[in-house]
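Open question from group meeting: does this chain pack into something compact, or does most of it stay loose? Before anyone orders reagents, we agreed to write out a predicted structure and look at it together. Recording both the input and the output here so the notebook holds the full record.
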Amino acid sequence: MISAVDEKSRVSKNIKYLLEVKKKTRKRVATDLGYKYTTFCDWVNGNTTPSYSSLEKLGQYFNIEPWQFYGDLAEGKVGRSKALVAYANAAADAKLLDISMLDNLGDAQIKSLMESGFRFRHKTLEEYEGVKITISPSDAATELSVSGNQLFISNGDVNTPVPLSKVVQLMDIMQAVLDENS
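Structure tokens returned:
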């Protein structure tokens, strides 16, 4: 969960971003929406956070959803957020999301979902049986396939079986390297 300080900072950053993009002044927005100028400036400066009803009003004014103030508007993650919320609402009872959803989420979004109790459904080994993945498009392409407890790496006439337990170890090592380098 994000802290109250982070929440104020994020909302403030997004209001500043919207003011810049929509070419609006603080005074104009405060007047248009009927807020005291000093109150609106406190939101912009991150001194206080607007109430949800105020965020609804600001959202209508800037043509965004209120919850988007807690995202990262400047980095264009609004589209992903909409998809995530729609998907999360549909799956809220089960708290189980399809693993393919990971392609559309950032690390912070994944962490937030997992902290709130969501889990990701992986394909079963049977669903991977018979699936072939070509690694290179050349004539001597390397193919990966799963059968039984083995991953088969085929390169031309050579077909090398690798126990899935070794593949899992290799993936753990690769993840550690990726984590260290990010």
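Observations to bring back to the group:
The beta strands are 96-98, 119-121, 132-134, 142-147, 150-155, 158-163.
The mean pLDDT is 74.
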